[in-house]
Every structure is written in structure tokens, then in C-alpha cells.
Amino acid sequence: MGRALQNWDASQLSLNAWRELLTESVQNASRFAIHCWNDEEPWVQLALKYGQRKPVPWEGGTVIEGAVTPAFREMLLSLERPDDRDVYNKFLPFFSLVLDDSFYFEHYGTELTFLPR
Questions:
Q1: CA angle centred on 47, ends 89 and 32, rounded to 5°
Q2: Strands 31-37 and 111-114
Q3: Which of 9, 45, 92, 117 yields a CA-CA distance of 20 to 30 A from 86?
């Protein structure tokens, strides 16, 4: 992508615009990290199909890391938008998604940070 640092509130983007950013970011990514709260067990289990737990000092959560594979890309890009959008206008079921330590989709995809690569 070769862009300068960008950080913005994405909560008001359309789903299509948000998915375009995700698609562009995951296209050439090689590694991912997914952060979930421990009580989000279905999402932890989904992430574990594509990576492994990373030992981190986060009592309330779990971090799963792995390689970005075609199967991971397909899963990520085919996720339904979460229905529980009262607190956050969620785009992702995961608390955070990090791609190559450069693309950060945080707070359920509502806050985006893209670092220069």
C-alpha cells in the first residue's frame, strides 16, 4: 500500500467501503494476530482454526497468531457483520485484527490504523 500513517474512526463507513479496506490490507499480508475477550469463545475457537494462542499477559483476553493463508483470507472476507452493534458499530466479531503489524482493525473494526510499510 505504501501509504503514510493513517488512523481514523471507521464506525460510520459503509460496509462496502470498510470491506474494500480489509480486502486491500489482507491481500498481501503474511501474518495475523486476532485479539478476543475470553468470553467470546465462539470467535476464539474460529480464530484457533487458523492460528495458535500466543502467550500474553492479558487476563481478560486471548491472542491468536498465524499465517495469512488463502483459507484465512476467505474466512475473514466472508464473515457476516455482527448483529450486536449497540455499543460499537461492529464490522468484525474479533476485538482486534492485526495484519503484518501494519494494519490494525481495532475495537471490532471500528478504529483503523495503517502504518507505513
A1: 85
A2: unpaired
A3: 45
Residue with C-alpha cell 502504518?
115
* pTM as predicted: 0.90
pLDDT at 77 over 70: yes
Give CA–CA dist 81/87, Å, rounded. Answer: 14
pLDDT in tens, 5-62: 577 788 788 889 999 999 999 998 999 999 999 999 999 999 999 999 999 888 999 9
C-alpha–C-alpha distance, residues 76 and 103, integer Å:
14
**What amino acid occupies position 14?**
S
Contacts of 28 (CB under 8 A, 6+ apart): none
